[in-house]
Amino acid sequence: MSEKSHQTIVVGGGMSGLTAAAYLSKTGHDVLLLEKNKGCGGLLNSFQREGFTFDAGARSILNAGIIHPMLKELGIELEFLDSPVSIGIENDVINLDSKTSLDDYKRLLEKLYPESINDIDKIISKIEGIMKDMAILYGIDNPNFRDMKNDRAYLKELLPWLGKFIFALRRMNRQNEPVESFLEKLSSNQSLIDIIAQHFFKKTPTFFALGYFYAYTDYIYPRGGTGELPKAIMEKIIEKDGKIQTGTKIVKVNLSEKEVKDKDGNSYSFDSLIWSADLKTLYRILDTRGLDEKITRKIFEQKELLLSKHGCDSVYSMFIGVDMPLEAFSSISNGHFFYTPSKKGLGELHWSELDSLIENYETTSREQILQWLNKYCQLTTYEISIPAFRNPALAPEGKTGLVISMLFEYDLMKKVKDANWYEEFRIEIENRMLDTLSNSIYPGLKDKVIFQSSSTPLSIESVAGSSEGAIVGWSYKSPVPVVNNLRKISSSVKTSIPNVYQAGQWAYSPAGIPTAILTGWYAAKNAMKTKNEKKLKREKTEV
Ligand SMILES: Cc1cc2nc3c(=O)[nH]c(=O)nc-3n(C[C@H](O)[C@H](O)[C@H](O)COP(=O)(O)OP(=O)(O)OC[C@H]3O[C@@H](n4cnc5c(N)ncnc54)[C@H](O)[C@@H]3O)c2cc1C
């Protein structure tokens, strides 16, 4: 094969594309991964500034019974540190260090909402049930990443687990209802519902949202930052003779020629293609000329469906270096902290008021938007990550780096950008975030900031090429256009496009790092099968 012709081409070097390329190169498959950015990692990456390390994507990584066995199977050694979570509301903070910390959470809610003690009891017992199912789902190494044929000890563990797993999956699939309406059936206290649900994406399926109370105890953190994980996988791909070409943005997929073209006009041909990036982009750049009419129609229908859908919620993240020692923060919480400054909850501010702002943007004054922003920053939930809590070497001595983020609506940011006050708006947001935290959990924080920068939903869209700045694929606000049942995840990678598989957060919903990895793994297995089928066909013809 010529340098630019490969058995499999993977487009996108996020966790899904890297997983696919790692498994393909492990078996000696001829694979080329093409990534548009200078480095791989996509929505999982870290960066350095003035001696501080910040995680720009996911703040910690869920093991989910996947990360450890996958790395072992790939022969990758990477040191992980614990990454315990804390939850804080107003002045109360609890550390979720053990699986019994749900009791502390219950007590926290009872203290804040004494009028709803019975509702809290019902909600906590539902969360408990979901946590038990999550413990079954994630509590054992995922069989895809273990050698079931030869590892007898694992098999002994696996067999009794399988029965429990099937029942847990069934129960989970029945809890697909949006978390907000699920909670509304258990309580009429809107503040209580908001405080539990507002830091999840809008209309997140119940089992996925409430399952996070288990996930919080399953987070791990690579010693050098979350970006170390994709870096280690990249190195392994290269060691196994897989090829990675960064700085290569794919702008055309020609199906009849079975080739992709980059922005500089270079072509790369493939037997099979694994698309591990934004799916709307794939369907926009497909050239279907020369394909069978029936297939073309199917592709067109899928394109129409995908383009009518919106990406999931996005986030606004601020990265600050602070002239305060770690101890000033470690006396408050763990290094991964979900903090809500007010027990009041976002209420309609996050729903109808926001929708109305966006819909009537042209007739809304900047003053009104800033008033909304003010309230939003005071009532929302912040995800605060302090990398140096896990490893003090990630910040200069005596100083602390913080990543502070909140969910933020892409459509509002886009309107602001189109109206030419994006930079001004950014500063307004940063100031309000800092004011809110300085007036609540971190007194004096604002005065100690050495530097600050931020990433908006529009930055995410442009850096990761992710539609609407989505950080976990499709929005849950309308039916998702891809497989959304864990029992069927293996089929989520198939497309109606000949020789093309899809992987990553757009291929399966609800998404995140574990499902990005799983879909990458399934896509690789399919590409290997395509290769073997082709080889068999060739051998038959030769005979
Ligand atoms: C702030 C934040 C917090 C998060 N928290 C969590 C969490 O707690 N738990 C969790 O499970 N998940 C979390 N996630 C989500 C998780 O990081 C992503 O779902 C996952 O990393 C997606 O991986 P992916 O491979 O599907 O896609 P991506 O990471 O988006 O990778 C796609 C890659 O394709 C490249 N690309 C795009 N278009 C092209 C093109 N035309 N040509 C070439 N390359 C292209 C992009 O540059 C990118 O590198 C979080 C994400 C963010 C941003």
Feature tags:
543 residues, alpha/beta, FAD/NAD(P)-binding domain, Polyamine Oxidase, Chain A, domain 2, 3 domains, eight-stranded mixed beta sheet, seven-stranded mixed beta sheet, 20 helices, globular, binds flavin-adenine dinucleotide
CATH architecture of the largest domain: 3-Layer(bba) Sandwich
Strand content: 15-25%
CATH superfamily of the largest domain: FAD/NAD(P)-binding domain
Q: SS-based structural class?
A: alpha/beta
Q: How would you sum up the major sheet?
A: 8 strands, mixed
Distinct ligands: flavin-adenine dinucleotide
Number of domains: 3
Cα gyration radius (Å): 24 Å
Q: Helix count, per DSSP?
A: 20
Structural summary, described in words:
- The chain is α/β, with parallel strands linked by helices.
- The chain is 42% helix and 18% strand.
- The protein has helices at 15-26, 67-74, 102-112, 117-138, 152-174, 179-184, 190-197, 206-210, 212-215, 228-239, 279-285, 293-307, 327-330, 352-359, 366-379, 387-390, 410-418, 422-438, 457-464, 513-542, and strands at residues 5-11, 31-34, 46-49, 52-55, 61-62, 80-82, 85-89, 92-96, 219-222, 243-245, 250-254, 259-262, 267-275, 286-287, 314-322, 336-340, 382-385, 400-408, 449-455, 500-502.
- Strands 1, 2, 10, 11, 12, 13, 14 and 20 form an eight-stranded mixed beta sheet that branches.
- The longest helix has 30 residues, at 513-542.
- The mean pLDDT is 95.
- Flavin-adenine dinucleotide is lined by residues 11-17, 34-37, 42-44, 57-58, 62, 249-250, 276-278, 281, 315, 317, 405, 464-466, 471-472, 504-505, 511-514, 516.
- Flavin-adenine dinucleotide (FAD) binds next to helix 1, strand 15 and helix 20.
